[in-house]
Design a protein that fits this description.
By secondary structure, chain A is mainly beta. In chain A, about 0% of the residues lie in helices and about 60% in strands. Chain B is globular and about 40 Å long. The N and C termini of chain B lie far apart (about 35 Å). The chains are: A mainly beta (about 110), B mainly beta (about 110).
C-alpha cells in the first residue's frame, strides 16, 4: 500500500536553531513529491515540487531534498514567522490522487 | 489576482440538513478537487473533476455530492447521509490531472454540526 509518513509530528526550535523535517514514502513509481506550508485556519500554500532523487530546491530559509525513499525539508536559522504545519504529498504510478502525510507542526520560539 | 475562493469561511449545519460549500477559481485550471482535513490526519480526497460535467469519486465520497457545470466552479454538497461532517474542507485546482504539477488551495471552509 502506498504510504507517506512525516516526522516528527511536532518540532519546537529556538529562533536561529536549524533543523530538518522528514517525509518518507513507500510508493511504486514516484512521479512527484510536493511540500506545502499551512498556517492555522488557512489553506496549504505550495512550496516545492521534486521529481527525481538527487534534486534540491531552495527558497529563502528552506531547502528541500529528495532521495529514493524520503525527502527532507531543511530550515536554516528559522524565524518565528516560519512557524506553521508543513505538509508533504506524493504522486505515484498511474494514480491521479496525491497521497498526503499528516504533517509536521513547527514552532519557532523567539 | 488569480486564485481560489471558498465560501463561507465558517458554516454550521443542523442534523438532517444539506449544506453547500462554494469553490470558484480564476486560474483557468482544468482540474479541481475537494479535500477533507481532520486533526492529525493527512488530507483525504472527496471528489475531483478534470472537465466540465465530469467528476470522479475520491477515497471518502460517501455522503457528499458535487457538480461541475462551469470550468470555474466546483461546489460541494454535504448531505444528511454524511454522519460525521464536522471538519475543515479544502478546495484545490491544478492545470491538468495528467501533469505532475502542484495544486493551489483555497482558504478553506470550517463546517460544524450543531
Amino acid at each position: 500500500e502506498d504510504q507517506v509518513t512525516q516526522s516528527p509530528e511536532a518540532l519546537r526550535l529556538q529562533e536561529g536553531e536549524s533543523s530538518s523535517l522528514n517525509c518518507s514514502y513507500t510508493v511504486s513509481g514516484l512521479r512527484g513529491l510536493f511540500w506545502y506550508r499551512q498556517d492555522p485556519g488557512k489553506g496549504p500554500e505550495f512550496l516545492f515540487t521534486l521529481y527525481s532523487a538527487g534534486e534540491e530546491k531552495e527558497k529563502e530559509r528552506l531547502k528541500a531534498t529528495l532521495t529514493k525513499k524520503e525527502s527532507f525539508l531543511h530550515i536554516t536559522a528559522p524565524k518565528p514567522e516560519d512557524s506553521a504545519t508543513y505538509l508533504c504529498a506524493v504522486q505515484a504510478g498511474s494514480n491521479y490522487q496525491l497521497i498526503w502525510g499528516a504533517g509536521t507542526k513547527l514552532i519557532i520560539k523567539p | 489576482d488569480g486564485g481560489i475562493t471558498q465560501s463561507p469561511k465558517y458554516l454550521f449545519r443542523k442534523e438532517g440538513q444539506n449544506v453547500t460549500l462554494s469553490c470558484e477559481q480564476n486560474l483557468n485550471h482544468d482540474a479541481m478537487y475537494w479535500y477533507r482535513q481532520d486533526p492529525g490526519q493527512g488530507l483525504r480526497l472527496i471528489y475531483y473533476s478534470q472537465i466540465v460535467n465530469d467528476f470522479q469519486k475520491g477515497d471518502i465520497a460517501e455522503g457528499y455530492s458535487v457538480s461541475r457545470e462551469k470550468k470555474e466552479s466546483f461546489p460541494l454538497t454535504v448531505t444528511s447521509a454524511q454522519k460525521n461532517p464536522t471538519a475543515f474542507y479544502l478546495c484545490a485546482s491544478s492545470i491538468d490531472l495528467n501533469r505532475d504539477t502542484e495544486a493551489f488551495f483555497g482558504q478553506g471552509t470550517r463546517l460544524t454540526v450543531v
